[in-house]
Specification:
Helix 6 crosses helix 11, helix 7 packs across helix 8 and helix 9 runs antiparallel to helix 10. This protein is α+β, with helices and mostly antiparallel strands. The protein starts with a strand and ends with a strand. The radius of gyration is 21 Å and the shape is globular. It is 37% helix and 28% strand.
């Protein structure tokens, strides 16, 4: 067994492609777009303007690549959270405890050599991206931008001396009119009590200004969350540009009071329905499949819903849910995943249950 740092283009290619080897024959795995992974790991990703990384590959005695892992130090996280912690991410490995320990030890030792006191993960590469090992709900594919990992990764982490840090929840809910009446009444009362409240779709005509408002809400609404690190303006804008043509404006909502942004909700179609069919390549065949299947997606992922602290518990959350549910029904969606939610975020977990959500997947973060 040998662990080597990624130094060449060929090694990077092997790093990116190993999931196809690990998940071969797994009907629930969704191949990521290779170009997306290349961007996330590449120097054009503005995340790396405030973060450092080291990528590792594990080779067996025959010289075959059998695992990978990334070590990450996010200096913005350390500064914002006041915690001297680094991360591991992009973990993939064959079911071999020796390989697993060698990979985790490589990250731990690298972080330690940089003066970092704690290792946490998986973060791919931060909480603003995919994170966690799946620990419940292995019987169905993940929704867009959510991870899928085999059960034995939990044993790999625990066998390498890592302990549970937190769990993240995903709720599955029906898009139906069961709650529409109740939410309609909440919305009516909230609008009356907050005369300056407006919940509207994001405008593409003033895209940069809209993104500025969305970032303002995002960084304020989540600032006290465990593990949160604010997006920089460049990061948020880069992400927004990438998603611009994929968003449905009817479920991309901004709440304002007298023109001041106070909350937002973003639900995205479950494009994993298409990614599963194109095997990581957005070539001509991939583009044609995307165009053909895009209108056949019947599930959403509610990935962002937040209200600035000063304006919480005033009914604004209910108005956002109401407008999103009403519009989702018009668009013909049947299912929605609400994810992810911290296990100890009582208010949001109750809201998901109130919306008829069933806790159907859990993801675990580890630390050492």
């Amino acid at each position: 067994m040998e662990i080597r740092a990624v130094k060449t283009k060929q090694q990077l290619k092997e790093f990116i492609k190993i999931p196809w080897q690990i998940y071969k024959g797994d009907v629930n795995w969704v191949p990521p777009l290779i170009s997306d992974v290349e961007f996330i790991l590449g120097e054009n990703n503005p995340f790396w303007e405030h973060a450092d990384k080291e990528l590792y590959l594990a080779y067996n005695e025959q010289g075959k690549v059998v695992g990978r892992i990334a070590a990450v130090i996010d200096h913005n996280y350390i500064k914002f959270q006041g915690e001297n912690a680094g991360f591991f991410g992009f973990y993939e490995s064959e079911n071999d405890t020796r390989t697993a320990k060698a990979l985790f030890d490589s990250v731990f030792d690298w972080l330690k050599s940089k003066g970092i006191e704690k290792m946490r993960g998986p973060m791919n590469p931060s909480t603003n991206d995919e994170c966690g090992f799946l620990c419940e709900g292995f019987d169905s594919p993940p929704r867009i931008m959510m991870p899928y990992t085999p059960p034995y990764y939990l044993k790999h982490a625990e066998g390498s001396g890592l302990k549970k840090a937190r769990e993240l929840y995903a709720y599955d809910m029906d898009v139906s009119d069961k709650l529409l009446g109740r939410l309609s009444r909440i919305a009516e009362i909230t609008y009356k009590k907050n005369r300056g409240l407006q919940v509207r779709k994001l405008s593409l005509k003033n895209f940069e200004e809209e993104i500025r408002k969305a970032l303002e809400v995002y960084n304020q609404a989540w600032e006290k969350n465990w593990g949160f690190v604010p997006w920089t303006q460049k990061e948020f804008y880069t992400m927004a540009v990438k998603l611009k043509d994929l968003l449905l404006l009817d479920v991309t909502l901004l709440a304002e009071i007298d023109g001041v942004p106070v909350g937002m909700l973003i639900a995205v179609p479950d494009y994993n329905f298409i990614l599963k069919k194109i095997n990581g390549k957005m070539n001509l065949a991939g583009i044609l499949k995307f165009l053909f299947y895009r209108g056949k997606i019947k599930a959403l992922r509610l990935m962002i819903m937040g209200v600035i602290k000063k304006y919480r518990q005033k009914g604004i959350e209910g108005v956002l849910y109401y407008e999103a549910l009403k519009n989702s029904m018009k668009l013909g969606f049947k299912k929605c995943e609400f994810s992810w939610v911290l296990e100890d975020n009582t208010m949001t977990n109750r809201a998901a249950e109130m919306m008829g959500g069933k806790l159907y997947k859990k993801y675990r973060l580890y630390e050492k």
